[in-house]
Amino acid sequence: MFDLTPRAADLVETMTGFLADHVYPAESLYEEQTSAGATPAEQHRRPQPAVMEELKKTARDLGLWNLFLPHAEPGHEPLSNLDYARIAELSGRSLHLAPEAMNCSAPDTGNMELLSMFGTPEQKQRWLRPLLDGVIRSAYVMTEPLVASSDASNIETTVERDGDEWVVNGRKWWISGVNRASCELLILMGVTDPDGDAPRHGRHSMVLIPRDTPGVTVERDLQVLGYNPFESHVEMTFDDVRVPAGNILGEPGRGFAMSQARLGPGRIHHCMRMIGAAERAVELMIARARSRTTFGTTLVDQGVVREWIADSRIEIDQARLYTLYTAHLMDTVGNRAAASEISGIKVAVPNMASRVVDRAIQTFGGGGLSQDYPLARIYAETRIVRMADGPDEVHRRGVARTELARFDAATTPAPHGVAAHLAHLPRI
Known about the structure:
alpha+beta
């Protein structure tokens, strides 16, 4: 049911070689280039590491480029979600290098999807083309510090019409990638109908803001579990930021619907990559357990370590099948019909990866917490994903809502169904 197409099988083979020959050997160099002696100015406009540009060129030459995009664009042949799942899983084995090297990293992937689906020809030429070519980067500006942004309808940043311009005012945070020197586009979601009669989910719109527009200010970097990653997250303000009226994306009032169109694929992409990260953590755990001795025996012969290995294998395979099934549904019945499964994997997979990586860290001891191994970074990423694109609790709420609706639909018209069965149970 989940067999790869011939094209995808070839890409998986190519991807495996790309990781072994180019990505893994570049990881330590990337760390050196992103942490060595950045000036105060570079902390806020971080230049691209040279090794990443080399990896991008190699990936493009190998045909490992823009594989995430399910929509046809000039020069791009889409993959199905099911086929892309296997490739994205492999990229997750090096979370901070491989996805970006393939031009398949967030937040650009979601932004490219938005522009592909809703952009005008002019917007596509100005922004989508250079994003697809990998010559610029972008940011998605949604979450706010003063409201519970897990309910996106709470967003308060205003986008008001003033003649032939839109004027943006508000404060945002956890905005990823803004400090990259190549970041040139912000896609901001704000309220365009704050006092009107539009329904709650019809008040928001998305607007395209060039990064260097006057009034756009990065207030501070936000640390992640105590460290400041190269792909930094920031808090920023928008003070009377003016952009042309033509910079609205899609139709006014459709921002909430467009955000859901963006986040659905983004959520499954996160899950695909988390599975690859967990697989690498298991491999590191086994290698470490084979090489260390405690209390007269190797770690791998300790019963608890074998339990960790077994539990990790079981949980990874369960998560992979759930993710592949969800990808299959997205391909066959559409993202909307697969919404419950998308929410389900968004809970199951990052939690699985957190448990697996935690076991690997425990196996490594103090080294697992250090920068000498990728486990601490992977662990931070798995924790971030449990909030990114919606916290676990919101996704559980969505899954429960779907299940309750199915229950109601099954019991209402069927006298011999569940309701009839329940009617014969003894009352307590």
